[in-house]
Amino acid sequence: MADKIKVIIDGIPTEVAPGTSILNAARQIGGDIVPPAMCYYSKLEGSGGKCRTCLVKVSKGSEKDPRPMPKLVASCRTNVMDGMEVQNITSPEVQEARKGVVEMLLINHPLDCPICDQAGECHLQDLGYKHGAEATRYEFDRRTFERIDIGDKIQLHMNRCILCYRCVYVADQITENRVHGILGRGDHAEISTYIEKAIDNDFSGNMIDVCPVGALTDKTFRFKSRVWFTKPVEAHRDCPTCSGKVTLWYKGEEVLRVTARKDQFGEVEEFICNTCRYDKKDTKDWVIEGPRKVSRQSVINSNHYEQMQPLPVVKKNLALQAANKEEFERTTKL
Amino acid sequence: MLRVEEKQEINFSADLLNKCGEIVGRYPEGKQKSALLPILHEVQAVYGWVSPEAMDKVAEFLDIQPIEVYEVATFYTMFFLKPQGKYVLEVCRTGPCCLVGAEKIMDYIGEKLGVKEGEVTEDGLFSYRGVECLAACGYAPVLQIGPEYTFYENLTKESVDQLIEDLKKKN
Amino acid sequence: MGRKLLLEHINVPGINTFEVYREKGGYKAVEKAIKTMSTDDVIEEVKKSGLRGRGGAGFPTGMKWSFLAKPEGVPRYLVCNADESEPGTFKDRYLMTHIPHALIEGMIVASYALGANTSYIYVRGEMMPQIRILEKAIAEAKAAGFLGENILGSGYHLELYVQPGGGAYICGEETALLESLEGKRGNPRIKPPFPAIAGLYGCPTVVNNVESIATTVPIINIGGEEYAKIGVGRSTGTKLISASGNINKPGVYEIELGVTVEDFIYSDEYCGGIANGKKLKAVVAGGSSVPILPANLILNTINGEKRLMTYESLSDGGFATGTMLGSGGFVVFDEDQCIVRNTWNFSRFYHHESCGQCSPCREGTGWMEKVLHRLEYGHGKMSDIDLLVDVSKKIEGNTICPLGDAAAWPVASAIRHFRDEFEWHVTHPELAVKQNYGLAHYADPLPAPVEA
Predict the structure, then answer these.
(1) Does A148 score more than 80 pLDDT?
(2) Which region, left, alpha or beta, applies to residue B93 given φ > 0 means left and ψ of -120 to 50 means alpha?
(3) Cβ contact C398–A50 (<8 Å)
(4) What is the pTM of this model?
C-alpha cells in the first residue's frame, strides 16, 4: 500500500499505517522485540505513557529529520514516522533504563506472590523475571494500605498496585458512572472510592481483567486455586448484555472463575458483563469451544498444558494435522 | 478510604452559590469543570475545610461525578480534608527558608502552641504545618495563614509571639 | 547601574494602580501594538528581541509563538504561568504584587499577537493576595477600555481571568497547568501533542511565564532590536533574579544579562555580599532544580574565565562543571551550611511534589529522600552515595515530564561536587549530627587549565 510508512525496529523492517505507535508496530512484528507494557492498553483510549517499561531508543527520527531523539521515549505513546529506526532489545541503554523502571515498580511492591491470586498470570511477575535484579537495594519499610472491598465481588490490594490507571479508564470508558479514581498524590496516590462505596455496574468486573497485577482480584475466585492448576477453556453463551465470549477456568468439573478472553499481549479481546463473569459458573450455562491457547506469558505454558498442543512436527504439516485431528481432540477434552 | 459515620446536610448560602455561578462564567460552554479549583477554595473559605458532603455538593453544582472532585481535592495540598484549627500557620520548610532558620521557627511555633505538627490547640484556634516552597525565599522565613493567605515574612521568635498574641486577641 | 525595563518605576508610589502606571507610560505598548502593528509584526518584534522563556527552560518566546497552530474557527488561548513554586524563585510574586499592570499589559499584547480572545493567568493558590491584586488590576484595565469588547476601537476583544491553583509545584509544568486549569489533577500530559497544537480544551495554546509576558511590554515599546542590544550573545535583555539565602540583601533584582556572578553576589547594587561576614560555600543559581556549584566553580568557569549571569556562561562546562540560569532563583550558601542537609531538603520537596503518575519519579524521589535522610542523620553507609547516583540516573530522562530531571540533578550534582562532605557524614556520623563540614576546600582556587 502506498500510504504505509517504513520503520525499522531492532533491525527488523516493517511497514505500518501512519499513526501507528512504535509499540504497536513492534507488536505487528512480534517476538522478542515487543517492548513490555504495564499501563498501555490498546482498547482503552488515553492509556499508556505512565509505567515507562516500554521505553525505547529512537536512533533515527525519520527520513526527513534523521536526528535521533534526545531521550528514550515511551513506545506506546510515540508514533512511528516514515523511515524511523528504533532500538529496543539491541540497545543497552534501553535495557538499563528498563531494569531501573522494574526496580522502581518493585521497591514498594509487597512481593506476596505466594498468597496472591494473580501469581502465574501477573505481568509484573513476568517483567521482574525478565528484567529485574535478584535482590533489592531498597532497605526501607514498604508502603502499605488497608485491603478493601470495592463492592462484593472485587477486592482491592492497594499494596500491589502499580498505578497504571487502566481500571480508571475502564470505569470511564465502559461503565456508566465512575465511582473510583486515583486519590492523593505522588507515592501516596491510591485507587479508591474515597467514601466507602460499592462499585456496582454491569461491566465493573473488567477492572479485574485489565489489572496487570494482583491489585484487583475476583473475590469469587479468592484462594480457590493457583491459576496453573486450572484449565482454561474457551466458551460462549448468548448474552443479552455482552458478546458472551469468555474463558472458563476449570478445576476438575468445577468452573472456578470466568474471565474475558485475552490475546497474546494479555489484553482482553472483548469486555464481558458481570453476569457472565460471576453468575454463570456452571458448564451447562456455556457452549464449550475448546481449550484455550495459553499465552506465552503464562506459567501455565510451562506446565502440563504444553503436551496437549500438537507436536512441533505435526504443527508444521497439514496432512499430519488432519490425520491426528481426532486424537488431538480427544486428548484435549476436559 | 473514608468511612462517613453520619452524613451531614450541607446547604450552600446564596452568596456562595452566586460566587460559584460567577466563576463558572469564566469558562467556555461545557467546560464548567474548570471552575473546580476556584470553587473548592471558596468552599474552604466558608467552612474551613472541604467535607465529603461539600464536595458532593460541588459535584452536583458542576454536573460532574463526585469522584472527580475527590480526585482533585486530594491531589492539591491546599485543601483540608479534615477540620482544622481556625488559624492554620503554614510555615515554609524548603531549602532557602531553612538556610535562614525556618526549622527553628517551626519548632518554636510547636513549642509555643504546645501541639505537634497537624494537631489543633485545645481552644480550637491554632494548628501548624510545614509546607513546601511558598515562593517568598527572599523574605524568609515565612508563614501564611488562610483563607486569605496573608503572609508573615522575615519571622523571628518575637514576631511569632506577636502574631499569635494578635490572633488570640481577635477572638 | 544596569538598565531597568521591568522594574524601572518599582519605587514610584501607587505604581500598583492603573492611574500611576498609565502616567508612567503604561499601556503604551497595547496602543502601539493594537493600533499600529499587525499580529505578525508583534511576533516578529518578539523574535527579534531574542527573548527566551523566563520560567526556566529558556526556550525562545517568539519561536514558541510562531509554532501556534491556527486552524479556522478554533479558539486559541494564552495562559500565563504564574504558578511560581521553584524553590529559590520569587520574582513573579514580586512583579505581580508591585506592578500588576505590567503583567496585564503584557497579557493584552501577547493575546493580541496570538489571536486569543480569552486568556487565563494561572496563579498558585497560595498567592491569594496577588490574585486579588490582579483581579483589581483587570477591573481597572477593563474600565479604561483596555480589556473587554472592541479594545481601543480596533474590534479586537479580550477577556482576562485569574485562575487559582491548589498547591502543587507540578502545575508549573505547562501541560500539568493546563490539566489543572481544566479542573483536573495536575498530571502532566504525554507529549506530543504539544500545547501549540492541542492545549487548553484541546485548542492551540501558548503557555508563558509571568516575566516573559511582562517583558513583551518593553520589547514593543523600545523595539525588538533595541532590546536585543542589551545582554551578551544569545542571552539578550534583562532578567529578574530572585536572590535568597545567606546574603546581606536578599530580594528581586533586575540585571542586564552578562553581569558577572561575582559582582552579583558581592556588589552593593545587588546581593551585597555574604551575611555576617561569612564566606561563600556554594550557590544554586537557577532555582532548586539546577545543579549546585561550589564557590570556586560558580565564580569562575573551569577554564578560569569569570562566570557571567547568562544562559551560556552559567551552563559552561555542561553538568560536569556548570549549571543553568533556569528561573533565576539564586540561592547562596555560606560556610556554615550543610550540603547533605540541603540536598535532603530539596529531595523531600521533589518527593512531596511528584504527581505520582510515572513510576521512576513516583518511587525514585521517595527512595532518594529516605537515603539522604539516613545519611544526614548519621545512619548512612558508604554505598549509599553511589546508590543515590545510580537512582538519580534511573530517574533522569526516563519520566513523562522534567520533574524527574529536576529531582535527579540536585542530588547528582551535590554528590559530584561535594562528595567528601557526604563521605564525612558516613565516616563521622556522630560529629555530623552536631556540627557541619564547613567550607573545606570548596572555595579554593581552581587548578589552572591545562594548555592544549
Answers:
(1) yes
(2) alpha
(3) no
(4) 0.92
Residues 6+ apart with CB under 8 A from C342: B95, B98, B99, C292, C333, C414
- Compare all CA atoms of chain C with the CA of A186 and give the residue at the minimum distance: C356
Q: Residue B1 falls within a domain, yes or no?
A: no
- B135 & B68 share domain: no
Taking only the tens place, the pLDDT of each residue in A35-67 is 999 999 999 999 999 999 999 999 999 999 999
Provide the number of structural domains found in chain C. 3
Name the residue with higher pLDDT: C34 or A194.
C34
* Position C99 in a domain: yes
Q: Which residues 12-51 of B have a C-beta within 8 angstroms of C?
A: 26, 28, 31, 33-38, 40-41
CB C384 within 8 A of CB C367: no
Please state, in angstroms and as integers, the Cα–Cα distance from residue A104 to each residue in A74, A269, C360, C362, following that order.
Answer: 16, 30, 6, 8
Is C240 in the same domain as C204? no
User: Residue B70 sits in which domain range?
Assistant: 14-75
User: What is the percent of chain B where pLDDT is above 70?
Assistant: 96
Residue B5 pLDDT > 70: no
The pLDDT tens digits of the residues spanning C320-372 come to 999 999 999 999 999 999 999 999 999 999 999 999 999 999 999 999 999 99
Do B71 and B93 lie in a common domain? Answer: no
Average per-residue pLDDT for chain A: 87
Structural domain that includes position C350: 339-434
Beta strands in chain B (DSSP E): 87-92, 126-131, 143-145, 150-152
Residue A333 has pLDDT above 50, yes or no: no
With 0-12 / 13-18 / 19 or more C-beta atoms within 10 angstroms meaning exposed / middle / buried, residue B9 is exposed
C266, C324: one domain: yes
Counted domains in chain B? 2
CATH class of A113-134+142-221: alpha beta
**Residue C3 near residue C230, CB atoms below 8 Å:** yes
Residues 6 or more apart in contact with residue B135 via CB below 8 angstroms: C84, C85, C86, C89, C90, C92, C93, C124, C126, C127
Strands (E) across A115-207 are located at 148-149, 154-156, 181-183, 190-192
- The beta-carbon neighbor of B96 closest among C129, C180, C245 is C245
Question: Contact A177/B65, CB-based, under 8 Å?
Answer: yes
Do C51 and C142 lie in one domain? The reply is: yes
Residue B51 has pLDDT above 90, yes or no: yes
Let me know if residue C449 belongs to a domain.
Answer: no
C362–A182: do the CB atoms touch at under 8 Å?
A: no
- Hey, is the C-beta of B3 within 8 angstroms of any chain A C-beta? yes
Contacting partners of chain A (3+ CB pairs under 8 A): B, C
Q: How confident is the model at residue B1 (pLDDT cuts 50, 70, 90)?
A: low
Please give the CATH number for the structural domain made up of A5-99: 3.10.20.740
Q: Nearest by CB to C398, from A72, A138, A182: name it.
A: A72
Does the residue B114 lie in any domain? yes
B91 and B152 assigned to the same domain:
yes
Look at residue B6 in the predicted model and tell me its pLDDT.
63
- Per-residue pLDDT of B53-96, as tens digits, reads 999 999 999 999 999 999 999 999 999 999 888 999 999 999 99
Give C180's contacts in chain B (Cβ within 8 Å).
37
B53 located within any domain:
yes
In the predicted model, residues of chain C with pLDDT beneath 50 are: none
Chain C residues inside the 8 Å CB shell of B35: 183
Q: Give the domain-ending residue among C211, C229, C247.
A: C229
Q: Are residues C266 and C283 in the same domain?
A: yes
Q: Where are the domains of chain A?
A: 5-99, 113-134+142-221, 227-331
What CATH number corresponds to the domain at position B137?
Answer: 3.40.30.10
Give the span between the Cα atoms of C113 and B139, in whole angstroms. Answer: 36
Cβ-based interface (< 8 Å): residues of A facing C = 48-53, 55, 71-72, 74, 77, 97, 100-101, 103-105, 107-108, 137-138, 140, 162-163, 182, 184-189
> Is the Cβ of C331 closer than 8 Å to some Cβ of chain B?
yes
Alpha carbon of residue C156 to chain centroid: 31
Let me know if residue B148 belongs to a domain: yes
Residue of B31, B33, B37 for testing the chain C interface, max C β-carbons within 10 Å: B37
Cα A274 from Cα A241, distance rounded (Å)? 9
Best A183, A188, A193, A204 member to test B by mutation, with max B CBs in 10 Å, is A183
